[in-house]
Design a protein that fits this description.
Elements (H helix, E strand, L loop, with lengths): L2 H9 L2 H30 L2 H6 L5 H8 L4 H16 L2 H8 L4 H8 L7 H8 L4 H11 L54 E6 L2 E5 L4 H13 L9 H21 L27 H10 L20 E5 L14 E5 H12 L3 H6 L7
Antiparallel strand pairs: 1-2, 3-4
Helix pairs in contact: 2-5, 2-6, 4-5, 5-7, 7-9
Length: about 350
Amino acid sequence: MKTNILATADLLSDQDLLVRLGVLAGNEREASVELLAHLATLDSRPSVYAAYGYGSLFSYCTQALRLSEDAACNRIEAARVCRRFPVILDLLASGEVTLTSVRLLGRHLTPDNHQAVLARASGRSRQQIETLVAELAPRPDVPSSVRKLPTFRAMPSAAAAPAPAASSLSSEPMAALAPSPAALIPTPRPIVRATAPERYRVQFTIGAESHQRLRRLQALLRREIPDGDPGAIVERALALLLEKVEKTKLGAAARPRPYPSIRPGTDRPAVRSRDVPRAVKRAAWRRDAGQCAFVFFTGRRCTERIFLEFYYVQAYAKQGPATVGNISLRCWRHNQYEAELIFGPHPQEANDKRGAGDG
Ligand SMILES: [Zn+2]
C-alpha cells in the first residue's frame, strides 16, 4: 500500500525529511536519465516498437509506458538531443540542466556551440533559457499591425462559467460589450471538449469573412434551422466538407464504379497496375475504419489514424492483387516495418539505424 509511504514520511524529523527529499530527487534524476538513454536507443530501432503494434515512439510512450502526452513529447525530444550530445545525460543526472532546458535548447545546439551553451544554461531558470534561445536564434520583430481584438465582460473564470445549453452567437459586435483596454484578451485557443455523452462543446475564432458566410447561411437556412443555431450550421458544413475531402483523398464517388474487371478464374484485376482502384480504397478504408490495421499477436491493434497508406498484404512485387481482400490500411511506420520483414531493411533506413531515428 502506497499510503504507508505517506505515514512513514509523516514520522520523519524535519532534518531527516529534507535529507530524504534530496536523496529521492537524485534518484528521480538518475531514473529519468536512464529512461532517456533507453528511449534514445528504442528511437533508433523503430521496428522494435512497430513489431509490438505501436505506430510511433510517441504511441509507445503514452500507451505502453503510460507517460502523459506532455511527458512523452518532452522525453522523446530530449532523448534525441542526448543521442546527438551524450554529455547532456551527465548534466541532467547532476541536475545542472533540466529536461525543459534540454528541450528548449536542443534544436539550437551544434557540435561547435554545445559546450559553451550548456555551460551557460547550467542552473538557469526557464525564462533565462528562453532568453538564451532568443540570443542563439533571434527572431525578427513582429510587424506592426492594427486589428480588432475581442473584449469580454468581467466574469468568473471560463471554467466556472456554466456551459451554454446550446451554441449561441450574439448578433451584437463584440466591441459593443463594455470595451476596456484591461479587458483585451488574446484570441483563445480552439476548444473541443465533451460536455455530455455524444455532445461536444466546440469553441474557436473565425474571421470577418467566415462570420459573413455564417450570417448568410443563417438567413438562407431560416426555414430548416429557425433559431439560426451556428452549431447546426457547422454540423451541415462539416458533413459537406468531409464528403468533398473523402472524394479527393479516397476517390469516393456519388455513383461508385464497380471493382475493376477480374481476370477469369482469379481474384486479380485483368490489367495489373500499382494504383489501388478507388472502389477498393473506399472498401478497405471503411472495413479498417480509417485506422492502421496492424495487429500484434497479443491482439493489440495499432491506434494510428494519420499518415495512413494502402498496404498490399501479399506484396505487389510478389503478384499481390489490388483487391479489397489484399489491401489493408497501415500507418507509415507499419507499412515500412512489414515491407522490411519481406524485403529486408530499406537501404536509407539501414543507414539511419545508427543515427537519429525516425524524426
Ligand atoms: Zn500502425
